[in-house]
Amino acid sequence: MKKSLSAVLLSAALLSACGDDSSKPSSVVDEEGCEHLQKGPGVSLSAVREGTGPAVSNDHKRYDIALQEVAGGKGGAVSFAVTAAEDYVLFTNVDVPVTVTTSGGQVVEAEAHATSSESCTDIRGRHVVPLGVGTHTLTFGPTTVGQVSLVIEESGEHEHAH
Predict the structure, then answer these.
(1) Whole-structure pTM over 0.90, yes or no?
(2) Residues 152-156: what's their mean pLDDT?
(3) What range defines the domain where residue 53 resides?
(4) DSSP code for 73
(5) Domain holding 100: CATH number?
């Protein structure tokens, strides 16, 4: 009896150690992002050529952003105020370059970038960006498209147990 109980406890410990599979949170985050890309609710706004631009948020909305004429094609910027330091996933409906900068002008490098998702064919851009508290500028382009749809979700991959 003691051996079988020990084996069960050991198996449970090994399984729980493997339970930190980041693909599961990613697929859940992708499903959420996909749902909002497809169904909204949508908010239309226009990016600005220079400056921080109109505000977007991680508020379960799709932002349909009209891009402006910029050097090399279309582009523009919007602002994103971060209230909790976390990794955020920026989903777009087109594969467009996205540059994220802090209010101090420092570029924030994406931890990951993909042009598709196994969970959703509507996701054409997926940028995982670690953001600190503060207002950030999201700059799109240059690209050939005149509009980009954006959904921002918390990644959930670095949440800590309470």
Answers:
(1) no
(2) 89
(3) 23-154
(4) E
(5) 2.60.120.380
